[in-house]
Amino acid sequence: MRSDSLLQHIETIETIASRVQTFVRDMDEASFLSDTRTQMAVMLCLVLIGEAVIRIDGEAPEFLAQHPHVPWAPIRDMRDLILLDYVQVELPAIWQAVTEIIPDLQEGVATIRNWRAQGE
After folding, report:
1. What is the band of 119 on the pLDDT scale with cuts at 50, 70, 90?
2. Among 24, 57, 97, 117, which is disulfide-ready with 101 (CB 3.0 to 4.6 Å)?
3. Residues 6 or more apart from 8 whose CB is under 8 A from it?
4. Mean pLDDT for the stretch of residues 59-64
5. Helices 72-84 & 36-59, crossing angle to 10 degrees?
């Protein structure tokens, strides 16, 4: 994978994960579960992030293996769940992704970016 392509995917993940956090700012689970608009926006973001992970995996699977601390698989699995079984998606699972997986993903991607910026 060209480094500019990898960087583009990482930036996509960072940007969209940040949007997820903006969408749910000041929300608790109950308010999220009652807000269809936010649910739909968050689910689209999860799909887009998952798609970026799939593209990285397709172009450079070794990159994902080199960074096992990042929750690549859970975000990819969430994408698949939303796309393939959107009628059955359990909203508490989406909320869990927002509150647990997305922060871990953001932290992991930031670590990668800092590591790469230092030239290591």
Report:
1. low
2. 97
3. none
4. 94
5. 120
